[in-house]
């Protein structure tokens, strides 16, 4: 992959945020969003970061549907969850907020696209009081970089991931699980009649100083290996540079069927140790 290809791909980056307002203990939240349309005519991924009263929300929606419908569905989903968060935050129990917000997003898409011809994978991650919470419908991924190691936090709701989960729980024979283990078809999303249970973290992740998080749409995770993701996240780069670099690598592969690809990279810098979990 040539240096020129990587450099030119940086021009596709959309925007970068450095958030301080409303962040605890005089700290800062560094976050960047970068994306490419790949080989698609329409960019149907929507990414957003919102900071409110010491909470940071990261939203990534990957539109499903032909033409502009997929982008419209993703926009409805992000706007719906954003409005609920901006009104009152996630409250004392983020799990309940996620449940209500995703149901509202699902209903909003079905209301505006009543023929159910479009929907969106939706990932919502929240940093709050030193913990990371998340909820997912569909096939976006959440990762945590800590101590040079990249941890995949979300499982994903594809046929393959659900089969692997069912096998671990003893609900599915090994032979069948192996047969569909690499099936990346999304089996749950908002905007779907019969929208089913969310993937929600039952126990939040305790954040430590130096942690960074990565949200990635399936256009990223299908194009890049986990080793490639980890190599970029391991570098001592800014969130901005890291996000752009990842998208540059996706573009540099020149896959003929490359899907929309979006990443959000974020890191919290807090002045007081009390915000973080104890070592």
Automatic annotation (TrEMBL):
Domain of life of the native organism: Bacteria
Residues of the PPM-type phosphatase domain: 30-268
Pfam families per the UniProt record, alphabetical: PP2C_2
Annotated SUPFAM superfamilies: PP2C-like
Protein name stated in the entry: Serine/threonine-protein phosphatase
Lineage: Bacteria, Bacillati, Bacillota, Clostridia, Eubacteriales
């Amino acid at each position: 992959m040539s240096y020129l290809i990587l450099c030119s791909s940086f021009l596709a980056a959309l925007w970068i945020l450095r958030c301080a307002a409303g962040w605890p203990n005089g700290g800062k939240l560094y976050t960047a969003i970068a994306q490419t349309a790949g080989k698609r005519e329409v960019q149907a991924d929507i990414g957003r970061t919102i900071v409110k009263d010491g909470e940071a929300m990261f939203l990534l929606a990957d539109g499903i549907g032909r033409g502009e419908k997929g982008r419209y569905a993703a926009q409805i989903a992000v706007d719906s969850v954003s409005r609920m968060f901006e009104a009152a935050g996630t409250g004392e129990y983020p799990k309940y907020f996620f449940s209500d917000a995703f149901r509202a997003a699902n209903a909003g898409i079905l209301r505006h696209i009543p023929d159910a011809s479009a929907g969106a994978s939706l990932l919502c991650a929240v940093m709050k009081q030193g913990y990371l919470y998340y909820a997912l419908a569909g096939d976006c991924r959440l990762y945590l970089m800590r101590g040079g190691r990249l941890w995949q936090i979300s499982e994903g709701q594809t046929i393959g991931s659900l089969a692997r989960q069912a096998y671990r729980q003893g609900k599915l024979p090994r032979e069948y699980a192996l047969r569909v283990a690499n099936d990346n078809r999304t089996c749950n999303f908002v905007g779907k009649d019969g929208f089913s249970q969310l993937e929600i973290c039952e126990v939040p992740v305790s954040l430590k100083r130096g942690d960074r998080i990565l949200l990635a749409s399936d256009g990223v995770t299908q194009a890049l290996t986990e080793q490639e993701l980890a190599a970029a996240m391991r570098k001592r780069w800014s969130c901005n540079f890291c996000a752009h670099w990842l998208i540059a690598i996706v573009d540099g592969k020149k896959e003929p069927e490359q899907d929309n690809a979006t990443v959000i990279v974020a890191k919290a810098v807090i002045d007081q140790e009390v915000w973080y979990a104890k070592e």
